[in-house]
Structure formats: structure tokens, C-alpha cells
Amino acid sequence: MNEDLERIRQIGLVKDNQFSSITIDITYASEKGAAGMSAALDVVCAEAEEAVRSKEYNIVILSDRATGPDRIRSRRCWPPPPCTTT
Q1: What's the rounded Cα separation, in Å, for the pair 9 and 59?
Q2: pLDDT digits (tens, 9 = 90+) for 12-44
Q3: Of 10, 29, 28, 35, which Cα lies nearest the Cα of 20?
């Protein structure tokens, strides 16, 4: 799975290719607690919308890789809906 995801992340580097991906971090500062989730989701949505509207990207990857003691993943983004998993 990780190898496949990395291939998708790098797809824009393939010559003569119509695809381009962007990775959006769905985590936010743990110090903001549960109250920070709504604002964090607004940021994720805005970043995804901007990426798609720019027509520069046609693949959007939502990532929780930054999850850790200082970063909480936006629970409404995880698990992803079935249409976004492979």
C-alpha cells in the first residue's frame, strides 16, 4: 500500500502524464483539542477545493502521517469514505 501511495504522490513527475497529485495534511495541533477540529476541517476543505479549482491537481491525497503527540488527525476525515480507498 505505501509503495502504491508513493507512486501516486510522484505521478506528476512522470513525463507526458495528465495526472498531478497534492497531499493535504489532515492533522492539527493537539493543543487545540476537540474544539480545534472544526477549524482544522475548514482548512482541509479549503486546501482541497483550491487544489481542484486550480486545475493543477486532479488527485488529492488526505494524509494523517503527521499524527503524533503534538498532532491529532481530523476524525471526520478518517477512516476515508470507501470511494477513496483501494
Answers
A1: 9
A2: 778 888 888 999 999 999 999 888 888 999 999
A3: 10
